[in-house]
Amino acid sequence: MLIHATITITGDTVMRAACEARLRRLLSGLYLKNEVTEHHGRDALCYDLKVEGGIPFPLFSQASQEFPELEFEAAWVNMNAGESGKATIVNGRVTEQTGTRTAGGGADDHPVYVEVGAGGRLRLALVLFRATRGEWRGYAVTADRDALIRIRREPEAVAVELLATEGEAEWSEAWRGDWPDRVAREAPASAIAIDPAAFKELDALARSFAERWIWFAGGERAEVAVESDRYARYGYPVLPANVRSSRLHRMRADAGENAPLVHSTLGADEHWIKDLLLATWANAGEA
Predict the structure, then answer these.
(1) Least crowded by CB within 10 Å, which of 12, 24, 71, 196?
(2) Which CATH superfamily is domain 2-103 in?
(3) 213 C-beta neighbours (distance < 10 Å), count
(4) What angle do CA 165, 278, 164 make, to 5 degrees?
């Protein structure tokens, strides 16, 4: 099973530099298979891993023993197994460890944001999960378009990267810059193919989310007929993508008269993601 993990190493600057050189030798096989990438900052080393069969803890434990002054923090998610966890390693020993189940990775087990604007128009529907310490992945929908998404931002950093699909299993749209002041869409470049295992889990998440929240005007005739009739009763037009009437009814009841129609289970540290999407990708189709 494919596991996404982030290893963050903090501590003395000189020791970190020596540890970085040592880990390049210990992880040489993973580098050759493109299973590890580096995102080092001024105050920490950060390794993103996408590996099969489990995190290479013995290698990091060995490095931790050689550099006992440093703290190794590991965070991982296994979407197929529905598991995530964190662990701290110091001097080769695990000093703290936590793990959680994600109930098989269904859409309702992940943070969700749905906003409906004037006239019943779907402004943004979003489901996501945290793949690594500084990376989120998910699925986003507006009334006119949908995409798989990948967002990268290190904790407390301003630099962000947003990648999105456009019909194919590849990252073909990109926005980069400093959030929230200067994030701009970049000129089209060569598309980046999505790893098959990563695409499979994202596609499954997108389908699960749509089954619960979204109906499409181009969907099955019987479903469209029922949903269209209910939308007509609300006085809403049918658009390419729409919130399911059962969900819409509950949102209207919860919101009260003339209140914004919003459903959100995003955490406090995830609200900026929906703001980023609304400021960039969600409006790109209208540009």
Answers:
(1) 196
(2) Api92-like domains (3.30.70.1270)
(3) 24
(4) 10
